[in-house]
Amino acid sequence: MKQLLRWSAVLRRQFGERVQKVSLDIGAGCPHRRGLRDGGCIFCDERGGGSGAFIQGVSLREQVRKGIAGAWKHYGTRSIILYFQSYSATNLPLERFASALQEARDAASAWGANVRAISVSTRPDLLPEPVLNYLEELAERCQIWLELGVQTTDPQGLRWLRRGHGLDSVEQALARLSKTRLRVCAHLIAGIPGEREDQLARSALWLAERGAHALKFHPLYVLRGTPLETLYAAGRFAPLSREKYVERLVKALRELPDGIVLQRLTAGVRPARLVAPKWILDKESLERQIAARFAARL
């Protein structure tokens, strides 16, 4: 029977122990934001999908230290992935980007961590050649992941989300990355207004066919201080129900080819930042429900 290929299990088999992501914020911003606090995609808050450490004035070195301490305290591991999560990490000149990666690696070494990989979150339309060349060189010594915020392959959905790029940018990015040793994890969202019932499955299969190595899924949710919150308050956006999300996700999982790594099946959100839907806070129960539904073949 087809099995879910979970990221945590893949890492444990590869490295012989638990590997924990350490989320980092280098204040890179995004090309369609006005500074860090304003603009961007309809669902994104001023923290750019991350911790908000940069706008809170937390140094990169301190972010690394806290992340390593947390990995040890909660999971008993010092094997980590340096995850440049917030905003679009490649939205910086090469010199600043490379300097940030080196600073994080040096800090991790100083705190006794074993850096198993580096993961860089960015947009399909923000892959400058010098940055890709730098990451290619780095990949000779360290596993490198590029996390692409694709969200959907439906052109109408991309416009509704205010992504600022079209599906052609995604296809071109995947074609370029297929010629490198970089590993690609694509992010997908379910519950965009107007999308087809099977859009999540269509998007996932489309990405797998074009070389994505891994996928992250989550429902469209409402954060405080976002344009989406305004729509939600006005009754112009309603999140998916838990049951509907599970149904759409399981359909997508069943249609994926073998070998696609599942890095995430739902969102991890701080309760204080979340407006709706509240059911996503019950993450462990939700993941058990997804796994059971997938196994049941119902």
From TrEMBL:
It comes from Pyramidobacter piscolens W5455. InterPro entries: Aldolase_TIM, ELP3, Elp3/MiaA/NifB-like_rSAM, Radical_SAM_C, rSAM, rSAM_sf, YhcC-like. This is Radical SAM protein, TIGR01212 family. Its cofactor is [4Fe-4S] cluster. SUPFAM superfamilies: Radical SAM enzymes. Keywords: 4Fe-4S, Iron, Iron-sulfur, Metal-binding, S-adenosyl-L-methionine. SMART domains: Elp3. PANTHER family: HISTONE ACETYLTRANSFERASE-RELATED (PTHR11135), PROTEIN YHCC (PTHR11135:SF1).
